[in-house]
Design a protein that fits this description.
It is a single chain. The chain is an alpha+beta fold and about 450 residues long. The chain has helices at about 10-35, 40-45, 75-80, 250-265, 280-285, 305-310, 330-335, 370-375, 400-405, 425-430; strands spanning about 50-60, 90-105, 110, 120-125, 130-140, 145-150, 170-175, 185-200, 205-210, 225, 230-235, 245-250, 275-280, 295-300, 315-320, 325, 345-350, 355-360, 380-385, 385-395, 410-415, 420, 440-445, 450-455. It has 3 domains: about 40-265, Thrombin, subunit H (Beta Barrel); about 275-360, Roll (Pdz3 Domain), CATH 2.30.42.10; about 365-455, Pdz3 Domain (Roll). Strand 23 and strand 24 (about 450-455) form a beta hairpin. The longest helix is centred in the first third of the chain and has 26 residues, at about 10-35. The chain is globular. The termini are far apart.
Length: about 450
Amino acid sequence: MIYKKFIPSPAILFLFLIFFLFNTIAYGEQTEYIRESPVVRAVRKISPAVVNISSERMVRRRSHPFSAFRNDPFFDSFFKDFFEPGFERQQKKTSLGSGVIIDGKRGFILTNAHVISKAGTITIVLKDEREFTAEIVGADPDSDLAVLKITSKNSLPSIAMGSSSDLMIGETVIAIGNPFGFSNTVTTGVISSTSRSLRVDDMVYQDFIQTDASINPGNSGGPLLNINGDLIGINTAIYAKAQGIGFAIPINKAKRIISTLIRYGEVVDPWIGINVQDTNPDVARYLGVKENSGVLVKTVETKSPSQKAGIHEGDIILSIGKRKVRSIGEFRSAMRGFSAGNKINIRLLRNNRRKTVSVKAAVFPDKRAMSLAYSLLGVKVNVFNNKSGVVITEINRRSYLAGIGAAKGDIILRVNEIPINNKKDFKKAIIKYRYKSSVIILLQRDNHAYNITVKL
């Protein structure tokens, strides 16, 4: 057999060269596309709207000649007995956090409430290093959200809010913030869980997104994004024990609070006019239901939305809206998902029969505040000779305040962080803290003032 040597023609060589060059170009384009991942595109799009927040306030620190021991608790406690309160010096304390511009035209910035808590001057720094002084539009410690405002001649970069209603466990998320002052730091991870609850000190925070994206204190208030760059949450670092675990407030929950803060400066809890209690074993056995199957309606206020809707004492509330209710905490958390004027579908159990009623939520009536104060604190108050505070005019002998020695003539100067200058302030504080388990009251008698924790 005779083999002929194959010699490619010039035409074949030309086609081969074209094929080689085409593949090389295509391969180069593919490599570039892989580097510019969805995460890169999302960060490029959103990072100009992420801001650095620093707040300054003056703090007073005791100073003594033995300053070498100023960090020693023993020496601090020892020398404080020898030096007058006036022997102090003032220092600036700066805290760092993050925020995200949600309205570039009006200059609204969303962040965590704890980032700007007790802040003096608040400075906003953009990615392009422009600086602004911000004012607080409103803050809500219960949800750990706050809205700030800055003024600019030109429209600012901003981010459109997405949705947190369809989050998937395991989907990729992106966190942007300023941990430890390192501006516009990007971390990635996945959604580990949704609807997480956290107890921090005496506060219970509900409905968190849990992620393994690294979220440090400086990330607080920054955005959590999905892979498309949609804003799905606001990062928070309130849980100091967390390592490798991050938490974010779902943006759908934040939307309602944002609009309320912008409109009223605070979150006003909806009122439907009922008091509830947990179905403990004794109550459950008496009613013939399972323990923690719902919350028991203790009282229904006269002419309240609940009475008008047909809710009775002894009813067991099973769910509010689409959320099951198994405890007082879950009941209050579910109620915070609504505003005054909303219609709330409440599923309840009565005489072993289930039914659904529609209740139209309202604002707590100001005229009921004084009777509420008597039921919670056991006191009646009045103005105090045109001076700050309200004076106790009547006290229930069986109340907690009476039990610790409070008496007629004592003056209430503050309830939690609200200064009491008149009856209007007192009513506002009572309405705001009516669901708390306790409040701190600054009580004055003669020339002495005392902070008293009062159980409600």
